[in-house]
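agent> fetching stored inputs for the magnesium ion docking request
agent> found them:
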Amino acid sequence: MEKIRTLRGFRDIFGEELDKFRRIESVFRKYSGLLGFREVELPVLEKTELFVRSIGDTTDIVEKEMFTFTDVGGDSLTMRPEATAGMVRSYLQEGLYATERMTKVSSIGPMFRHERPQKGRYREFHQIDVEVFGVKEALVDAELIFMIRMILDELGVGRYRIEVNSVGCKTCRESFRRVLIAYFETRKDQLCEDCLRRLERNPLRIFDCKNEQCIRVTGDSPLLFDSLCGECRDHFGLFQGHLRGFGIDVEINKRLVRGLDYYTKTVFEVTSDDLGAQKAFIAGGRYDNLVEEMGGPATAGIGFAIGVERLAMLVPSSVEKDGKRCFLACVGDRAKGYLVPFLKACVAAGITLKYAYDAKSLKAQMRYADNLKCDFVLILGDDEIGKGVITLRNMTDKSQRELPLDPKKAVEELGALA
Ligand code: ATP
Ligand code: MG
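agent> prediction call returned; pasting tokens
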């Protein structure tokens, strides 16, 4: 019979990669806790409208990447492609704006985008997401960069760049839009089909195009960063000042725009050349109008998402060695009766005990213990039981000695070695 496989772009995650996922999560939780974030778990499935309204209907995500389907009740549902939309929905639904001066929340989980799978790009992938609601001050923009910096340093990620930009507010964007359209209108013949559409609907989006020729066209274009309004320019200046306070160097990339419509003022990406084509592994920014656009009171917001798969590619393999490995070899029916008491004593003492479920000859069990690269083997046969002892063999130097047969006492001595 033909074997059933995962869907294209969906993967099983295990072994070293999963170890790295867990390490990333635990380092993240350490710093998000220190900085006062509280973790939430939100639904993976939401109404399609939530994403269309928040992410924007001229974005790649909404135009072509969403896993959307109609359920049996006739509603259009979407597997979340990113976390911010759900975080805003939850912030409003739970009424947090009315009970908290400001809200710092985080979430970890899978996201879904119908993209062409390749290295570092999957249809199901994982994000760690961070959002702050109700703080308009640039200090929090810098605090998020500081948090990223602490996490990456502790994980041992060596080479990365933090790129920052400001995409302004409605006021600066509206006047700049005309300048931009005028520039690209005269270069239409050099733009890809997608960008021709972007030019009509959302010209800033052209800066996000990955097409070489489009990137070249944007090379000489006027930049929003150079025509920010006073307020946005001030905000960016304060942001830079706070970054200096934290002692963090960033690069200003005036061409950085993000693939979602809701961003205002500060945007940033953390990139690494070690990742190849998909070089961004953390991305975020401020979204001061989103909460209001989603039906809430005017509330500032800022957040970022870590792409866990891509970050895991940059995290060095763990040098941490696990504890010593122990094996129990039982020969004969009487000895087998001691397996459960020894297993219970080991688990209680925090020692991993391996053993053969189908214990046969001592030779076969020793071979098995060797294959498992065990450091110590406890050997129990009729001779030992007669003497009231259990033999402990050190597999490294092959020395042997006797421990008391009482599981608790024996495991205590083993614990001193393991
Ligand atoms: P890209 O430019 O690679 O398409 P994006 O701008 O669409 O990224 P965001 O929406 O900003 O990505 O998501 C934040 C992070 O999530 C990215 O920096 C990346 O690390 C990760 N990410 C996004 N899409 C995928 C995917 N399909 N597979 C794996 N990771 C992804
Ligand atoms: Mg994308």
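agent> quick read of the result: The chain is about 40% helix and 20% strand.
agent> awaiting further instructions
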